[in-house]
Amino acid sequence: MKTSELLNYTEQLLDAPRFRDYCPNGLQVQGKENINVLISGVTASLALIEAAIEVNADAILVHHGWFWKNEDMRILGTKRKRLKLLMQHDINLIAYHLPLDAHTSLGNNAQLANQLGLRVEGWFGEQNIAAYGYLPDAVNLSMLGTQIKQALGRQPLIIGDPDKSLHRVAWCTGAAQDYLAQAVAVGADVFITGEASEQTVHLARETGVAFIAAGHHATERYGVQALGSHLAERFGVRHQFIEIDNPV
Questions:
Q1: Among 219, 221, 191, 196, which residue's Cα sits nearest to residue 207?
Q2: What are the tens digits of pLDDT across the range 175-218?
Q3: From the centroid of its chain, how far is CA 143?
Q4: Going edge to edge, which strands form the sheet with 210-213?
């Protein structure tokens, strides 16, 4: 299928133009005019590019692409090595950051809710990318931590009383620890995100709202997989998600 057709459809699907983001969304590096093999992954790392080359990919779809605000614009070092490989193999690099966080069915937060059995009630935070809702059955903090470990395959960092009963939940994948105060404001018993900062620990303790850092990479594996699968079904291309492990 035509690369331009896939891009036009995805831009509309994710409503990408409405987002004020820290990087360009959509096509970041132009490659082949047609896509038959689409690889998805969390981050456009060298390891992902090399793995995509091994399976003769025509395009790579990621959540974390390149050209971030305030980064060095020069094509040097690791950036040169990554870009050189893409261009040598004529592979398209397609990235969606905040639009992929926010999408109400395919996005990272919607897909994390599916993984953890959370029910979405509404959205909050910057450009409404974070979600709040509830657990269908009340559990305590310790039990929720165990469920997250089983679902995501890694031990989360948990701040709070292990016996605290939970019902209302707020969550935002990735590095959204600064949303804890907003999670408190929407009445959450617990806030789930990817990373933790020193000050969020104190805020969690002082407000009594539990805090869980379940991994930036681990919480953001699912949106790009869902989007890749959706595009493959719609356009008849072959899609494969490639996991490049990241402990953060």
A1: 191
A2: 999 999 999 999 999 999 999 999 999 999 999 999 999 999 99
A3: 24
A4: 119-124, 130-140, 165-171, 190-193, 210-213, 157-159
Q: Are 126 and 137 a contacting pair, CB within 8 Å?
A: no
CB-CB neighbours of 117 under 10 Å: 12
C-alpha distances (whole Å) from 10 to each of 32, 43, 131 are 17, 18, 22
Cβ neighbours of 137 (radius 10 Å): 8
Q: Are strands 59-64 and 92-95 parallel, antiparallel or unpaired?
A: parallel
Q: Is there a common fold for 3-101+220-241 and 103-216?
A: yes
Domain boundaries, the chain: 3-101+220-241, 103-216
Q: Does the pTM exceed 0.85?
A: yes
The CATH number that domain 3-101+220-241 falls under is: 3.40.1390.30
1 exposure class (CB count in 10 Å sphere: 0-12, 13-18, 19+): middle
Count of all residues that appear for the chain in the document? 248
Q: What is the dihedral of CA 220, 16, 129, 110, to 10 degrees?
A: -50
C-alpha Rg value of the chain to the nearest Å: 19
Q: 88-121: per-residue pLDDT in tens? A: 999 999 999 999 999 999 999 999 999 999 999 9
The Cα–Cα gap between 240 and 156 comes to: 27
Structural domain 103-216, CATH architecture: 3-Layer(aba) Sandwich (3.40)
